[in-house]
Design a protein that fits this description.
two-stranded antiparallel ribbon, 3% strand, Bromodomain-like, mainly alpha, single chain
Length: 159
């Protein structure tokens, strides 16, 4: 689980830093479940002997839930990309310190023109007609299923 989540994060950073694909707000939200799994799985490796088999089964079950939540976020993003529903307010770009009431018109104008807008409803990259959010949805479902299978297998060995 740790390796899968870390690999997905590395892939996301690779697309961003090497491939030049800037993430939208929903892309960034999709990374959170992976960070959570890295933390949970990483901590469980450090205390695995104390947790015991049932504790490890619980950790695997918790990771399954986190991966399932990640699939939900990715599925929502796919729906936004396909125009099935509206995205979040943060999906249109802008925001941040642009709402500062103390900005002059010139400062606001300069910041607006300097702000790169990455929309959630545009697909910057796809393969076989599936976007990165779509692949993340499929991967998250697979990781959730694998984590659930692992939790069940560990639990059965303790019974």
């Amino acid at each position: 689980m740790f390796v899968a989540a870390a690999a997905m994060l590395a892939g996301a950073w690779g697309f961003q830093l090497i491939g030049g694909l800037q993430p939208c707000a929903l892309c960034l939200y999709q990374r959170w479940p992976y960070w959570i799994v890295v933390a949970i799985a990483g901590a469980s490796v450090l205390v695995a002997r104390r947790l015991g088999p049932r504790g490890l089964a619980g950790v695997a079950g918790a990771c399954a839930l986190v991966f399932a939540a990640g699939a939900g976020i990715a599925g929502f993003h796919v729906g936004v990309e396909q125009g099935w529903w509206e995205g979040l307010a943060a999906c249109g770009g802008g925001g941040g310190d642009l709402n500062d009431p103390n900005l002059s018109i010139e400062e606001l104008k300069a910041r607006l023109f300097a702000t790169e807008i990455v929309r959630c409803d545009e697909v910057p990259w796809s393969l076989f007609g599936i976007s990165l959010a779509g692949y993340n949805f499929l991967a998250s479902l697979a990781f959730a299923a694998a984590s659930l299978w692992a939790a069940r297998a560990i639990w059965r060995k303790t019974a």
